[in-house]
Each structure stands twice: as C-alpha cells, then as structure tokens.
Amino acid sequence: MSSEASELRCPSCGSTKIHRSRIRSFFERVMQLAGWRVSRCHNCQIRFFRRGFQSMRFQEAPRLYYRVLFVGTALGLAAAGALRFVVR
What we know:
By secondary structure, the protein is α+β, with helices and mostly antiparallel strands. It has helices spanning 26-33, 61-87; strands at residues 18-20, 37-41, 47-51, 54-57.
C-alpha cells in the first residue's frame, strides 16, 4: 500500500494538509463520543468530521447526530428503568 493512498484527504479540495480542530459545540462533542473527530483543511479552511480514513462534511452530519441522540436517549431510558427495579 502506498503512503499516498493511506493519507486522509479533505472532502472539499482533496488536500492532504489537514489537522485536528477544536470541539466547539455540544453537537461536536456528541459526534466525538460516536467516534468522529473534527478536522480542518489548511488549504480551504473547511471543517469536517473524520473517522479513520472516512470523512464527512458538516452538512452531512445532522442525520448521524439524530441517530446517535436517539440511541443515547433510548439507552439512557433503558438504564434508568433497569435501575428503578434494582433499587426497589
């Protein structure tokens, strides 16, 4: 496997000059907990999510965010219900 094929690229301009970006919101924190990292391209300054060599622009992220939020809420409610029976 060549080193060029293993480099992560910007989804907007295709540059390999990217770095991790700071988390700015609750939404980005939830995405981080789901395994996604926020990155920024040095060339075009776009911010995007990445996981391994997979990347996703911020415009594509809300659908995933709602899935993560729904699953997290369902797990939280299930844990609260189970704890209620354990405490009794």
